[in-house]
Recover the amino acids of this structure.
């Protein structure tokens, strides 16, 4: 593996930011450190870069233990959240900064910067200053500056946080194409799961200083290993005492569960429904138009479940009684998330099309 962390821990005063963190990335991987604020993801990034030193454990880059290796010798390119461009330097000089520090010959600097300006799509803008650039252009310059010395690893700390939503979406696609083209091992920090799922080929989910789970986005979505991942990846409703729901009586007593929108099907009372014994009684709380469907919040007992509803089906209104078929959920049992199916559907419902 190209990047490895083995049982890495880090404490700031009384606060333990990283607790026995372990994961490995292959060369050329584009990985996301994903978690809520304070989960330890930025500390992990800074330890890889050498900006923080671990209290214990090993950081290995390309087979070399680098715990005591200074940042400038690790072959790291770092992109900061706030761009950190030198405002009194031109785009050209900002990108050239690291190359000049390495005492690279002027001719090679010129060739490298022209190559990078083409790569980031800013040809002809080398003479501009940061104040003359848009937020998206500034971030591209920050990428180019980090890439200029040809680092082995690219680290990015919430690289899209300071950019508006439309430009952020465009930069996500651009970053993925760029990393794929350069084949450089990259790790970026984000708290935005949509961003991680769209950009990364591997996600490292962090929570309270620990790594909860690592894997490709689809694997984490389909097979969350812990209650935290089941709730954090995707959108879900938390259902206390899920053994009280129809069809889930075999869930562990007192267990909570996570219900994804796609695990639910609503039926208007105007529709024929052949699985009435498998469904809950519900009442519509709110409706929101989402283009090709409605986003529906429906009250079932003590919980409000969010799901989708096709515009082609009988209309619904707030306050309408409905039937709510929950045909799967993740039950939380001793720190694990276990996918359970509605037991009432075992006979006759397995092949049914739920229009989801």
């Amino acid at each position: 593996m190209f990047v490895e962390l083995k049982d890495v821990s880090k404490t700031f005063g009384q606060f333990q930011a990283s607790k026995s963190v372990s994961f490995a990335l292959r060369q050329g991987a584009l990985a996301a450190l994903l978690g809520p604020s304070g989960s330890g993801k930025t500390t992990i990034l800074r330890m890889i870069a050498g900006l923080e030193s671990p209290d214990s454990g090993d950081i290995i880059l390309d087979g070399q233990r680098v715990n005591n290796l200074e940042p400038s010798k690790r072959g790291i390119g770092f992109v900061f959240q706030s761009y950190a461009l030198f405002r009194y330097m031109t785009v050209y000089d900002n990108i050239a900064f690291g190359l000049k520090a390495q005492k690279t010959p002027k001719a090679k600097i010129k060739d490298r910067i022209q190559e990078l300006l083409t790569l980031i799509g800013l040809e002809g803008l080398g003479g501009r200053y940061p104040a003359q650039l848009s937020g998206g252009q500034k971030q591209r310059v920050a990428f180019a500056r980090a890439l200029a010395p040809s680092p082995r690893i690219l680290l990015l700390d919430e690289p899209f946080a300071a950019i508006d939503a439309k430009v952020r979406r465009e930069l996500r696609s651009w970053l993925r194409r760029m990393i794929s083209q350069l084949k450089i091992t990259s790790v970026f920090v984000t708290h935005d799961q949509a961003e991680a799922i769209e950009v990364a080929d591997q996600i490292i989910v962090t929570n309270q200083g620990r790594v909860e789970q690592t894997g490709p986005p689809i694997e984490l979505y389909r097979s969350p290993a812990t209650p935290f991942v089941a709730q954090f990846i995707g959108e879900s409703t938390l259902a206390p005492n899920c053994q009280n729901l129809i069809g889930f009586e075999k869930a562990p007593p007192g267990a909570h569960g996570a219900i994804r929108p796609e695990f639910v099907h609503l039926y208007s009372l105007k529709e024929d429904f052949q699985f009435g014994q498998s469904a809950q009684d519900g009442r519509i709380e709110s409706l929101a138009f989402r283009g090709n469907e409605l986003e529906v919040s429906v009250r079932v007992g003590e919980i409000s479940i969010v799901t989708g509803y096709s515009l082609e089906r009988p209309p619904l209104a707030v306050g309408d009684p409905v039937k709510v078929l929950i045909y799967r959920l993740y039950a939380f049992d001793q720190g694990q998330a276990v996918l359970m199916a509605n037991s009432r559907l075992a006979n006759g419902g397995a092949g049914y099309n739920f229009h989801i």
